[in-house]
Write a structure and sequence with these properties.
The chain has 3 helices and 5 strands. By secondary structure, it is of the alpha+beta class. Strands 1-2-3-5-4 form a 5-stranded antiparallel sheet, covered by helices on one side.
Length: 138
């Protein structure tokens, strides 16, 4: 596991504007925010991507993400938000420690902008892919 800025924050080597901490997670303000209230939520477990994360750490993240999102909305005055989580360099991950961005969307338009090039799922190919994923999840 590479030494990342998040591992340095977890060890207390780099300060952060902490908004939440428990035994398994840490949340703090992003120092390069897209919008007011942009918050990062990380597991204390040093996994580089979501698929490498333990079930316990994933469950801990799932418990705190809604609570932090609600607080971020109220504190920032935002009307909506995005949750962004990237895995791998080609998916635009820059820090190789699992992290979720809670990015408020404000009435002035600040926040995350997303382009979505939707395709169409072929029914037969979709059935086969769904079956394969079910098999691998078991």
């Amino acid at each position: 596991m590479p030494d990342t800025i998040f591992s340095k924050i977890l060890r207390g080597e780099i300060p952060c504007h902490k908004v939440h901490e428990d035994a398994h997670t840490l949340a703090f303000l992003d120092i390069f925010p897209i919008a007011l209230g942009h918050t990062l939520v990380i597991p204390k477990e040093p996994a580089p991507t979501l698929d490498a994360l333990s079930d316990d750490s994933a469950a801990a993240l799932g418990r705190v993400l809604p609570r932090i999102a609600r607080a971020t909305l109220r504190a920032s005055g935002a009307t909506a938000f995005n949750v962004l989580q990237n895995n791998g360099e080609s998916a635009h991950q820059a820090v190789f420690h699992v992290h979720f961005h809670i990015i408020p969307k404000h009435p002035d338009g600040s926040g995350l902008g997303i382009g979505w090039k939707a395709g169409k799922l072929d029914p037969a190919a979709g059935a086969a892919l769904a079956q394969r994923i079910r098999e691998l999840c078991a």
